[in-house]
Amino acid sequence: MAARPSGSALVRRRFLLTFLLVALMAFPVVARAPASMAPARIERIIEALLIWRLVDELDLSEQQIARIFPQIKALKELRLELGRRKRALESELRRALARRPPDEEAIKAAVAQLQALREETEQRRQHILRQIHAALTVEQQARFALIDERFEAETLRLLEEVRRLAEQPARQ
């Protein structure tokens, strides 16, 4: 027979379910909002969903939530910054490749900048993840290690959806 969740775990789960329901109901409204408003609202919803997913899966305390929230926000900002900078560098690289004859120096410089961006981003990501781990118990660290890759992949997928929604013309 499975153990029953503690009272605080039940409260958190109820809150999470309520929050998810509200977020899901709000999503269509946000998607129809003016283009300038939708991406920011969607990002906040995604950020909140990610936090509460971690709260639920790792059974975080309020103190841990307070310590981890800024790190999750920093990870999100890092991903968004990487996307913006990467797209700009890739565009620059495409322009350098399209020149006839190809500008080898410009190509080398763009490739080097792209590689440097990836390395810098990974270093910053690892630093943030170390800060998250420092706020967790050993058991929570183990659970986080099990969900980390899936969590990252799903976050990237959600952020990509936000980017696509932001690029779509406002729906009438």
Verbal overview:
Helices cover 84% and strands 0% of the residues. The chain has 172 residues and is mainly α. It has one domain. Helix 2 (38-58) crosses helix 3 and helix 2 (38-58) packs antiparallel against helix 5. The longest helix has 37 residues, at 62-98.
List the defining traits of the structure above:
172 residues, mainly alpha, 84% helix
The structural class is: mainly alpha
The proportion of residues in beta strands is under 5%
The overall pLDDT average reads 77
Fraction of residues in H or I helices = over 70%
Based on Cα principal axes, name the global outline.
elongated
Rg, rounded, reads: 20 Å
Q: How do the helices and strands follow one another from N- to C-terminus?
A: HHHHH
Tally the helices: 5
Number of domains: 1
The low-pLDDT segments are 25-35
Number of strands: 0
The first-to-last residue Cα distance is: 53 Å
Biggest sheet features: none
